Amino acid sequence: MNSFRAPFYLDNKRWFVTCAYNPRFRAIWLHTTPIYGIEYNSPIRCEVSWIDNICRITQRPIHEEVNIIADETPFGILNLCVYHIENRGAQHLADALQHNMTITSLDLHDNKVQDEGVEHLAAALRHNKTLTTLNLLRNKIGDRGAQYLADALRYNTKLICLNLLGNEVGNQGAQYLANALQYNETLTTLHLWNNKIEDQGVRSFATALQHNKILEILDLSGNPIGDEAADHIANILLDNTTLKQLWLWNNNISSELREYFKNQDNRVQC
């Protein structure tokens, strides 16, 4: 207590309050500076100070005074996978992403984020100008979450790779994303392996590929897709020279059609 009292009360003679959300421990900290004797000295966290009420992502040691000019930690790649941040954590993180100017890649796989949490992340994507890769692998994102992301893709001009592998996106969600591809001019990679997309959803992507000249990798593996839809989207590739890889592994495609793709177009991997 003395190590805290001396610099805080006797020297600085001021009250500086900071509120931080620690995603790893799913805890909200309300503290003053300086802080000593805490085990978690430099955790990654979303932090708000009373100076400007702007949420920032930082890893600054918590006993150091907040500097709103030079405080933002230049992460580049931020890996928060398997933190179980869920919807509340996604909301706090999204608040910080709206103002962050350093993170280019965000990994949130296996975090139990649902549509509600994705709504906040999608809102952040409308304002964020640096994030190029967003990994939402194995969360609990359905059609409504796909709609939020699709709406964001209409306005976002930086995101290059979106990974939705292992979620719950169905035909309606596929249609939302496919429609967004007709307007988006930056996304080059879209992973939708192991969702709930059927032939109807694949036809939506086929329509989008007639207009989109940006997407290079489309991953629809692990979905209940049959011959008709697979053949339809493959035929679209005759006029689309931008798409370099169409992944259709682990679907309901017949061996005959697989062999045909193998011999006719090596861009189709199944």
UniProtKB/TrEMBL annotation:
Pfam family, one: LRR_1
Gene3D superfamilies: Ribonuclease Inhibitor
Source domain of life: Eukaryota
Name of the protein in its database record: Uncharacterized protein
SUPFAM superfamilies: RNI-like
GO cellular component terms given for this protein: cytoskeleton
Location in the cell: Cytoplasm, Cytoskeleton
Keywords: Cytoplasm, Cytoskeleton
Chief site of localization: cytoplasm
Organism: Adineta steineri
